[in-house]
UniProtKB/TrEMBL annotation:
Organism, as annotated: Campylobacter sputorum subsp. sputorum
PANTHER family reported for this sequence: 4-HYDROXY-TETRAHYDRODIPICOLINATE REDUCTASE 1, CHLOROPLASTIC-RELATED, DIHYDRODIPICOLINATE REDUCTASE
Domain Dihydrodipicolinate reductase N-terminal: residue ranges: 2-113
Listed GO biological process terms: diaminopimelate biosynthetic process; lysine biosynthetic process via diaminopimelate
Cited Gene3D superfamilies: Dihydrodipicolinate Reductase, domain 2, NAD(P)-binding Rossmann-like Domain
Pathway: Amino-acid biosynthesis; L-lysine biosynthesis via DAP pathway; (S)-tetrahydrodipicolinate from L-aspartate: step 4/4
EC number, as in UniProt: 1.17.1.8
Family: Belongs to the DapB family.
Catalytic activity: (S)-2,3,4,5-tetrahydrodipicolinate + NAD(+) + H2O = (2S,4S)-4-hydroxy-2,3,4,5-tetrahydrodipicolinate + NADH + H(+); (S)-2,3,4,5-tetrahydrodipicolinate + NADP(+) + H2O = (2S,4S)-4-hydroxy-2,3,4,5-tetrahydrodipicolinate + NADPH + H(+)
Alphabetically ordered keywords of this record: Amino-acid biosynthesis, Cytoplasm, Diaminopimelate biosynthesis, Lysine biosynthesis, NAD, NADP, Oxidoreductase
Protein name: 4-hydroxy-tetrahydrodipicolinate reductase
Organismal lineage: Bacteria, Pseudomonadati, Campylobacterota, Epsilonproteobacteria, Campylobacterales
Amino acid sequence: MINIGIYGGSGKMGTMIFECLKNNTKAKVSSIYTIEPLNYEPKCVITDDFKTFFENCDVVIDFTIKDGAINLLNYARTNPKPICMGTTGLGEDGENLLKTASNMMPILYATNMSLGVAITNKLAYLASKALRDFDIEITEMHHHHKKDAPSGTALTLAKSVASARDLNLKDVMVTGRNGMVGERSKDEIAVMSLRGGDIVGKHTIGFYNDGEFIEISHTATSRATFANGAIKAALWVSEQKNGLYTINDCLGI
């Protein structure tokens, strides 16, 4: 039985991971790190102290915010522990820290823990490579509480389709259009964000040409999709050597 520590146990994802682990036969929640009150009553260690949190788990699952993830990685650099991280919006400094920390422990980082999104990303890469004359537009929709835009998943998809065409996403990404912006450039990749209601997550990658278009879309209807994916990823990364892994490594695709 693997002991899982939930970092950020009071959040929506932390709560869902706890619920999904209740009947898991391979893992259990052994510690929860939180600075906010919980709306459930777990029978495990609850703390806001990193040392206590780390001492009572085998692997950590993190779904928090950038500052929280950076604090976790900084502590883990001197107290290595396998980490499954799903926090998005890390920025360049956070991603660099992630790479540095992975030299000292196994870390699986994914902007989306869904199997369906992993397959969507693979399909989008193949389509981008094969349909080089098609324009690419990406839209993502999320609930009105989401803080970062574009979503981490949308950026992952955008990087994937850009790399399929040997493009640097920073050079070709557009995140908004307003006024007389001129004609669309050939290599342009638009990533547009919509926010509203309680939408868990929807991502669509469109490939548009004269006379035809293809759209690849993934819709999440429950956070349990991400929670179960994170649990599977945490169990997998707990057995790996030091290094930085992706959800594709875990799924073998």
